Amino acid sequence: MHQSRPMSGVRMGWGVFLTCWALAAVVALVLGRDANWDLRNYHYYNAYALLEGRWSLDLAPAGSHTFLNPALDLPFYMMTQSVLNHSPRLIAVLQAGHLGLLAFLVLLTTNIVCHGNPQRMTGTSALVAAFGLTGAATLPEAGTTFNDLQIACLVVGAVLALLLAAGADDVLATGRATRLRLLSGVLGGAAVGLKLTAMIFPPALVVVAVIASPLGMRRQLRILVLLGSGGAVGFLLGGGPWAWFLLERFGNPFGPFLNEVFHSPWFPQETIRDTRFLPSGAWQALAYPLLWARRSTWLVTEWPVADPRFAVGLIALLIASAAKMWGRRARSMYAVSDYQIQQQLPMESLAAQRASWAVMGFIAAGYVAWLAMFSILRYAGPVEALLGVPVWAMGRDLLLRRAQAIAVAYGLLRTKLFCRMGTVWAAIVLGACALGTLYPEWNRQPFDWAQEPHGAAAVAVRHVNLPSGSLVAMVGPAVSFTAPFITGSGVRFIGAPHPGEAGPAVFRTAMAETVRTTAQSHTGPAFAIVEDPDDYDREVAAAYGIALDLASCVRLPNNLTTLVHLCRWR
Predict the structure, then answer these.
(1) If residue 565 lies in a helix (H) or strand (E), which one and from where to where?
(2) In terms of domains, do 463 and 413 share one?
(3) Considering 294, 397, 412, 504, which has the largest number of Cβ atoms within 10 A of its Cβ?
(4) Can you give the pLDDT at residue 146?
(5) pLDDT tens, 96-133?
(6) Domain assignment of residue 37, yes or no
(7) Do the domain assignments include residue 66?
C-alpha cells in the first residue's frame, strides 16, 4: 500500500505569489516602458473604440486587427486614461502581475511533477519552473500589452487543473475531480475566446486529460465530455459577446478570420494568416528549434533572438521517452521489478511520474500545433513555460533511475541523494541555457521620455483638435494609437485594409468599398496619419482615393515612437 510522507520545502501561498510578482516587476522595470508595435497598431485603439462607442463612426482604423477581441486590452487602456498614466513604472509593475501569476501556476505544476505535492516548493521544482519562465518567449513580455501572458496563465492553469483532477481520483474524490476537469475546460475555452491564437492548445489539453486520467475508455470519454463542455462555456464567457457582435454586424463571429467558412462579403474569402515564420519545408521543420538555439532574425520573431531552451527541452523529451521504453530492460539487470519499485514509492512519487508524462504530452502536442499554425515564438508561451519538465524527466530517468534500482535493493530509497542530484542537474542545464539566451527587445522605451512630449507617462500623444466633421485616414499600420488624442466634433477614423493581409482580394471586399466610398464622397476637412510621409504605401493610399499633401505634414509628438505625422489629403 502506498503511503504519503511529509514533504520538505516552502509552502505555496500568498508569500510565494507576491515574491513571483515582485521578481516579475523587477524584470519589467529593468526592461523599460512598453512601446511595442502591436500596442501602436491595435491594442490601444481597440479598447478606445469599445469604451467610446466608435464602432458606429469608424471604419477599421487598425485594419484586420480592429476586429480582435478587445477584452484583454481594457485594463491597460483604462489605467492610461486615469491619473496612473503619469506613473508608468507603477503601470509596468501592475502589468507584470501577469508574469507573476504565470510563475506561480508553473511552480504549482512543477511541484507536482518533481515530488507530487503542489503545495510544497522545493529547490528542484523552483529550478524546473525557472527553466521555462526565463525563456525568450516569456520573460521579455513582463509588463507588456501583448496579452500572451494572460493566455499562458489560462492554459497553464488548465493543465494544472487536469493534474489536480488526477490526484483527486487517487483519493476517490470524484466530485472534486469533476469540478477540476470542468474548470480546465473553462480556462482553455476562455483562452481561445479572448485570443484566437490560443486555438492550438485545446488539442494539447485533451492529450493531458487522456494521459493523466484513469485507464478505461468509458471513463476517459466521460472526462473528455467534461473538458469539452467546460471549453464551450469558457469560450462563450471569454469571447461569446464579442463574437455575437461581429456576427450580427459583419456576418462572421471572427471578423476577417476563418472567412472561408463564413463567407462574409465584408472580408476576403481567403484565409488571413501570418505565414512569415512557418518552416519552409519538412527538414527545416524538424530542425526548427536548433535554428533559433543560436542567434537568428526573422525566424520565429522579428527581433534578433537566441534561445536553446526549446531545442534542449524537446531533445530531452525524446530521450526521456526512449528511456521509459528501455527502463524495464535496464531494471531487470538488477532483478528489480516495476512492482517492487512502485510498492516502495510514496503516492506522491507515483503522481509525480504520471504528471510529468502528462505535461510532456502537452508540450509535444502544443509544439506540433504551434509549428504547423504559426511558428511565432510569442504564441508558444504556455509550451515554453513548462519546458523544464522534460529536462527534469530526462535527468530523473537517466541519472536517477539506475541509482534508484540499486537503492531499492539496499533500502536506501528515501535518502536525500535523489533530491540533491535532481537539483544539481536542473541548475546545470538552466545555467547553460541562460548563457546562450538573447532576448528580443520589443521596442522598449525609457520611463522618462526625453523628447517631446517631455516627462513620464505610459502613453503620451500631443492632443490635436481638428475642425468639425473631419475625416482622418490611418494610412499604414502602427498609427491607430493616436486616435484617442485626436478630438473634434464629428471626427471619424477610417482604415486602409492592406493587400499584405490577404492579397489584392482585400481591395474587392465590402469593407474596402465602404472605406473607398467614404473617402471619395467626403467634402469636409480630410487628414491622414502616417508613420513617415517619405516612405508610406502610396499604392494602398491610391486604392482608396487618398492623395497626401506632403507639404502639409507635421510631426505628431508621442512617446511610443519618434515617427507619426499628421497630413492633409485631397
Answers:
(1) strand 565-569
(2) no
(3) 397
(4) 97
(5) 999 999 999 999 999 999 999 999 999 999 999 999 99
(6) no
(7) no
- For residue 70, being part of any structural domain is answered with no
Q: What's the grid cell of residue 387? A: 519546458
Task: Count up the domains in the chain and report the number.
Answer: 2
Only one residue has cell 486555438, namely 199
Task: Say how far apart CA 298 and CA 376 lie, in whole Å.
Answer: 10
Identify whether residues 366 and 461 lie together within a single domain. no
E strand or H helix at 236: helix 217-250
Q: How far is CA 409 from the centre of its chain?
A: 46
Long-range interactions of 84-91: CB distance < 8 A, separation 24+: 84/458, 85/457, 85/458, 85/459, 85/460, 86/455, 86/456, 86/457, 87/456, 87/458, 88/33, 88/447, 88/456, 88/457, 88/458, 89/29, 89/447, 89/456, 91/143, 91/458
C-alpha span between 162 and 109 (Å, rounded): 10
C-alpha span between 306 and 552 (Å, rounded):
44
Cα distance between residue 291 and residue 200, in whole Å: 22
CB-based contact 138:147 (threshold 8 Å): no
How high is the pLDDT of residue 339? 47
User: Are the C-beta atoms of residues 480 and 62 closer than 8 Å to each other?
Assistant: yes
pLDDT tens by residue, 324-374: 877 656 555 544 445 444 544 566 778 888 999 999 999 999 999 999 999
User: How many C-beta atoms lie closer than 10 Å to residue 304's C-beta?
Assistant: 14
Note down the domain range covering 490: 448-569
Q: H/E element holding 487?
A: strand 486-487
Q: Is residue 427 classed as helix, strand or coil in its secondary structure?
A: helix
Paired residues of 548 in beta bridges: 569
Cα(533)–Cα(553) distance, rounded to whole angstroms? 7
- Residue 178 corresponds to which amino acid? T
Asked if residue 525 is part of any domain, the answer here is: yes
Same domain, 269 and 376: yes
Strand partners, 59: 494
Provide mean pLDDT across the span 485-502: 85
Assigned C-alpha cell, 156: 497553464
Q: How far apart are CA 297 and CA 307, in angstroms?
A: 12
Give the mean pLDDT of 224-252: 97
Check whether residue 422 and residue 475 sit in a common domain: no
Q: Which helix (H) or strand (E) holds 548?
A: strand 548-555
- In angstroms, the CA 556 to CA 472 distance is 14
Record the pTM.
0.94
Q: Is 405 found in the same domain as 542?
A: no
Do residues 469 and 507 share a domain?
Answer: yes
Name residue 529's beta-bridge partners: 474, 566
| Per-residue pLDDT tens over the stretch 34-65 | 999 999 999 999 999 999 999 999 999 999 99
Residues in contact with 72: Cβ distance below 8 Å, sequence separation at least 6, in sequence order: 147, 150, 194, 195
Task: State whether residue 493 is helix, strand or coil.
Answer: strand
Final residue in a domain of this structure, among 405, 435, 465? 435
Across 80-212, where does the E strand assignment appear?
120-121
Tell how far CA 140 is from the center of its chain. Answer: 12
Cis peptide before 203 (omega within 30 of 0): no
Same structural domain, 412 and 528: no
d(CA 20, CA 355): 23
Domain boundary among 435, 465, 483: 435
